[in-house]
Amino acid sequence: MYCHVPYQEDPGAVLEELRHRVVVAGEYYWVHGDDRLPEGKRRPLPSSPDELWADVFHVQRKGEEPEVCAVQPVTAAEARRVTGTERLTREHVQAVQGLARERGYGRCAVLCDDQGTP
Question: Model pTM greater than 0.90?
Fold first, then answer.
């Protein structure tokens, strides 16, 4: 899934805004609502971001190994390898989506406009 918000200096604020948008729109996989679960084990979608994110996931810091259910920034080396540039734009999104190779992991990047402004 691809989501974006206007540039903000604070990655935590960006993540919080994205979480809110995704929850409000219902654009996520809710494991507790999976049809393969017995009916007694299913639960309805959370009604708020706070309810969904009670066990908050975090953005990986530079050099940290990603944990399951974590978001890790795209590195400059990865950006160069898959797009040929470190300054990513919305046109590069499809190319960097493949960097999240396993289910349960996310990637994030600052995207720039045509003038190079975040």
Answer: no
Residues 66, 76: Cα–Cα separation, whole Å: 17
DSSP string of 46-86? PSSHHHHTTT---BPPTTPPPPTTEEEEPPHHHHHHHHS-S
Left, alpha or beta for 102 (phi > 0: left; psi -120 to 50: alpha)?
beta
**CB-based burial label for 20 (10 Å; 0-12, 13-18, 19+):** middle
The model's pLDDT over 76-107, given as tens digits with 9 standing for 90+, comes to: 999 999 999 999 999 999 999 888 877 777 78
Q: Which of 89, 93, 95, 86 is nearest to 113 (CA)?
A: 89
Q: Work out whether strand 105-108 and strand 70-73 pair parallel, antiparallel, or are unpaired.
A: parallel
